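QUALITY CONTROL LOG
STEP: pairwise intake check
CHECKER ROLE: data steward
CRITERIA: each record must contain a sequence immediately followed by its structure tokens, with no blank fields

ENTRY 1 OF 2
RESULT FIELD BELOW
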Amino acid sequence: MNKKILLTICILIISTLTLTGCDNQSNIQQLNNKPSANNSTNNLMSKAEKRAEKIEVMHFHGTNQCWSCITLGEYALKTIQEKFPKEYENKIIIFKDINGDLPENKDIVIKYQARGSSLFINAIINGQDNIEEDIRVWRLVSNETQFIDYFETKLKNLLGK
């Protein structure tokens, strides 16, 4: 009987750890009760018709990353470096890889309202931040070509190209 209980507990623990994955990162958490940055999606899309003078791509993660978290950051950076080399060199498009578990990143985590592993895009238009979390990239992370095509198109639209 004790072995069955122990086995059941072990299975529950493993299942919980598997299901929570990268979203269960110790220090990246909801730090305030402000509306989610996702609420700016419609606002960003309507302003996307205007040319963004600068784009900040922020890859948030914890200290321990799984394959998809690492790959997400790698594909985003690769897209920027290969498809937008002039904009990257001239700092029109900026990529930052941010470990939200580190105390020195607390302010940027709060600004973007980042929780868990995430990719945010801040299209700065007329000096105004337009922050949007891009959740579609997670569905594309297993296909590099599709990810790069999607992300390139998204950035081109924000730049008015």
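ENTRY 2 OF 2
RESULT FIELD BELOW
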Amino acid sequence: MFFCAECGAETAKWTGKCPYCGAWDSLKETTKVTGKRKTKTLTPGQASQPEQLNKVGSGKQTRISSGFAEFDGTLGGGIVPGMVILIGGEPGIGKSTLMLQISDMVAKDGHKVLYVSGEESNEQIKLRSDRLKCDSQSLYLFCETGFDEIERAITNFEPDVVVIDSIQSIYLSSRDSSPGSISQLRECTSIFTRIAKQTNIPIFLIGHVTKDGIVAGPKIIEHMVDTVLYFEGESQNQFKILRATKNRFGSTNEIGIFEMKSTGLQEVKNPSQLFLSREDNNIGSAVGCVLEGSRAFLVEVQALVSPANYGISQRVALGFDHRKLAVLLAVIEKNLSLNLRNNDVFINLAGGMKVLEPALDLAIIAAIISSFKERALPTNTLLLGEVGLNGEIRPVSQVDKRLKEAQKLGFDNIIISARTKNISKKINVSKIKHIKQLFPILFSK
């Protein structure tokens, strides 16, 4: 059989293009187990019966805390017994470090944790545990790649939490393919999922990612598990973001922010301070607020407008869509009569933040104007608003949550859309309808 690594579809022959999802060069060869299936005759009393949905019990389960509030929030409140979690990330991003720290904190909380490693020896993990100061007596290490031995250890040891590092290194002896192949990944993940559901033991699967940034192997692995977490961040950047792309027990809009230090990963309590520099007379800098899930972050937008000395002017956006930047520049030129055609425009979001929502439109325009006029914005000014093609300012969602974050960090001069409703009177707010009203507010002195 041939298996599509993108959508998980099966086909009997190889083609250059998947007939189901249209992905090119995604069909991988695998084996198909054939044979007669053993059937078991059930008596009428043994057969399961349909049950009314409104009479099914909710089955309240106590979540296990990982010791990291950021990690628990990404999962939706903690580790659910019997859940299967796939954690992906680039090599060296900190997946094994994070899971070893979580295993140690869960073990110190009175739970028995089994850490299975198929890529490192006992001595290597011991060296890392000494650096991370992991010394719990309830944390057990098992270095093995054979699935049968791992399943036997889980059955005999009866742990409360299992960590598999990594799923690509585990193999079934009943399959002829090598570890990491499609058939091995599919079968191992399927059996691990069955074990988790039958024994009510949460299992963490660490997975490698490809050069495209997706978990290596077929997409069906993500369909099998309950939760998929991606550990993101530049290898040179000390700040890492944990993002949920699939979660059956919580929201997929939550993120967790960690900082890599010599003693391991530490959660960031106040993420807004990472993306701000509270300096006076900072020309070309404006502050906006974005939402990641249910959390609000203040982000500093940096703009640089300089004459183009190399012919065609450049438009560069780091952390922001360059096409949206072209739209905002056109709005500025038409409505504010500023000639930016002969200038290079560079936009950067401080701290390596990547933003897609339109709430930063007004802050980006203010930063561009500040750099072009070479005049700094007033201190403690926050700009919130989406800018339309005609220059009108539109309100943003969940403005109360954004304003509370701004108040906590001392921003007392807020500029928002005039159509924003239900704002507390304790906050100093300037409401504007059009970007033409920015000049008298920002540069009145």
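INTAKE CHECK: passed for both entries
DESCRIPTIVE NOTE, ENTRY 2: DSSP finds ten helices and 21 strands in the chain.
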